[in-house]
Amino acid sequence: MAAAIELKQVSKAFKGKRAVDNLSLAIERGSVVALLGPNGAGKTTTVSMILGLQQPTSGQVKLLGGSPNERGVRARIGAMLQEVSVVDGLKVAETINLFRSYYPNPLPLEKLLRFANLEEERDKMAASLSGGQQRRLGFALALAGDPEVLFLDEPTVGMDVTSRKVFWDTVRAMAGSGRTIVLTTHYLEEADSIADRIVVINNGRLVADGTPSEIKAETTGRIISFVPGAGVTNETLLAIPGVSGVEWNGPRAHVSSGNTDALIAELIGRQVPMKDIEIQSGGLEAAFQSLVQSAK
Ligand SMILES: Nc1ncnc2c1ncn2[C@@H]1O[C@H](COP(=O)(O)OP(=O)(O)OP(=O)(O)O)[C@@H](O)[C@H]1O
């Protein structure tokens, strides 16, 4: 079966400046992919081209094996974009029903209200909802057509902690039922917990692509710390292959390395005297910062 989404050497230029630069990417059906990148990296432009809302300057975009501009393809996708369009004069349930009417096989209204945690707001005017409630309405509208591919652009901005949890539980359940989900987020811990693949974009280019643990391991965000025995100096540690930096906190040395497994073997092999050994992962945040900085 064709990939859910395929980008081949896609570029998009605005007034000569490339917002997306020669991006190639295939997203398998049933996967949950997070697009990460700093402000202005090109994430929204990429999603807009996949949705057919913007046309690439060059390259090819395929969605569900066809063109994003085909009606038949559009009926099979759902998108929650940063701007939620609220129709004036309609209540929450009426707005959802309007969107349901656009699709051949919509999900039931009650299910959508539950997924979006909007059961209590069903009879409120949509325009009177708070920012976070409007985002949740945007989620219900994105799901209205029971989409095979779901796009979530910064979905949890403005949501409170409870709504966020309900939201991600629902997204996880959706992913479990074989849908393809593409999300952009600035909350790296969310990407880490929900995505099975993370694609990092910077300056319109792909700078890393892998599982959350591969992305974390690819970077210098990992540290071994220990209290070295007498005679072990900064220079001794820096001279060991695989050590990318050493910082001291009193008697404790924090040694960073791209591959802490290999480094620990090296330290033991060299019989470096060590006490109270700890291995810390820098986490996705550190990995992300280091990727974005090294790509500059
Ligand atoms: N319509 C436009 N006209 C001119 N430049 C644009 C337009 N849309 C986007 N850009 C530029 O393209 C680049 C990528 O923007 P884009 O919105 O895709 O980034 P992003 O990764 O989604 O950022 P953010 O995290 O801030 O939403 C930015 O430099 C932006 O200023």
UniProtKB/TrEMBL annotation:
Residues 5-228 form the ABC transporter domain. Keywords: ATP-binding, Nucleotide-binding, Transport. Pfam families: ABC_tran. One of its GO terms (molecular function) is ATP binding. CDD domains: ABC_DR_subfamily_A. It comes from the Bacteria. This is ABC transporter ATP-binding protein.
